[in-house]
Fold these 2 entries.
Entry 1:
Amino acid sequence: MSRKSSTKQRPSSAPKKTAAPARAVLPVRPHTGPEFITEHQIRAAYAARLAELPLIPITAWQPQPDGTVRAHFPTGASLTHTPTGFHALTPCPQGAVHHDHITTSHDLHAAATAAAHCTQLHGRPRTLTLAQAATTTADTQALTCSDIDTGLANRAASVETEKPKEHPQP
């Protein structure tokens, strides 16, 4: 009889290593905001709820370098929380920003209404309407070059004849 070679594996004396089960993957929340919430943000959100201001999420309060926090509204207005309370910054149609101290939601509504109906120019040059321009043109007199030369000559002659006034002595 012939002897057959065996393909059978022989047990080894070393312990067998089994593969470790794969760890379950933890769910990851998408990064949508700051990684932490500051005490100032919590304080501002809590104070806003106590003052019955519109609901503003804690993460909507953005920390500022001066230690205050600010929340922005879709209307362009913003609300700042400081240790002394709330301050509304509301833009007006004239291009300025109105600053108002806010204690309740009624104050915030009044500040927004006042800014929306503002007609003060806030120091900017005024743009005339066509009706105002027509009135201004009618009040202006036309001058020729000879009129201007005569006026300058008269002014120069009066300057030469004037004597400076003496200052009173104390």
Entry 2:
Amino acid sequence: MAEFVQEYAALRWSVVVAFLCASAIVVVRLVTPSAAGAMPCPAGDAQAEYARRCDNSIDSDGSNTCHESDAAHLIMCLVMLTMLVFPAGANPLALRGVLTAITVVFAVLLLGRIAEWHSESRAMPADRMVALGYHVVAAGAMLYAMSGHRDGGHGGGPEPGPALVLAMLFAVDAVVAIVAVSAGWRYHWLGHPAGRVLSSAIVPHVVMDVGTAYMLIAVVYG
């Protein structure tokens, strides 16, 4: 991976800038509840439905937050920034350990939410479950991308076929998100609010899709 990343420096630093922008967006969303949604939050029952679909909880003042998805995006952005800024210096064993821990935590969180919804005898919000599942898959994909790498990021790596299939799936999801915005759909299929402009929820998701696809391609051709 290191060779590919270092050879195409312009592409590498473009992806770095994209991850930095996505990180800034999710930090703002985490510390500023009113920034958690780019579209106006409706009132009453519509507000509850909006919150449910976007991983949100409604605060006492009526604002809403997407802390789970935003925190997951931020963690993954920081890990992938480390891999891009230090392609030859990052220790593959350490990265695999971090990615393994992240994947396990995301999976436990997903299972915990499923158990919580069942124990409270209420309908399981499918969009929220899929959004958490997305982060499990993204973390697992990056863990797979790092499989077989030796020190310095040289040699080894995953099988090209599955890695390219995963890259294609993430690229397709990014296209779906952009189409959702262009078509004016109220929600992206993973539950993020779309609207007629790129929302603060959709932008980090698209960046994560494109960045993950880029990293998977880098490990195949690097």
